[in-house]
Amino acid sequence: MLGHRAPAFSVTRDQLDGFCEICLEAGLAYDSSIFPIRGRRYGIPDTPTMPYIIQDGGGRRPVEIPLSTIMWRGRRYPVAGGGYWRVLPAWVIRRIIARLNRAGCPMVTYLHPYEFDSQPLSATMAAGWSLRSLKHQFKQNLNRRSMCDKLDAILSVHRFAPAEEYLRDPGRLPPHDPGAGLL
Question: Are 161 and 182 in contact (CB under 8 A)?
């Protein structure tokens, strides 16, 4: 396995040292589990926002590729993909990518396969009828129909590459490239 992303960015601050050791022992080239934000369910707000070496262990140097955030009005906001891309208009995402790239930072994103499925998700089928399942269903289906057009609009302006390619040759995605990003 080349890289890893923990489900729901579930690595916490108290797990970080042990988690980095596991990444090193597993021989991972990269991890992308750290979201450098202060979130209700996830995030480690004071971690770097640019890719960085996790640990140096006997010549192996796994890289942490944190998910993208932006500073706005003195606060750091997540903009990496998934629900964030569903609620943000394409023109805002394009501006965010350009802003990150001007600052020398690649756009690190993720997209869920269900976000491109034409059929709505039904949390109530899986969890039964409750206010909580209806709320979850609403959030997971919000603006899903916009994702294909939005992704087309973004890819018409910006170039993305897998993390593996970035690690193999970081020079292929120079920080000043206005269309550089990572998936």
Answer: yes
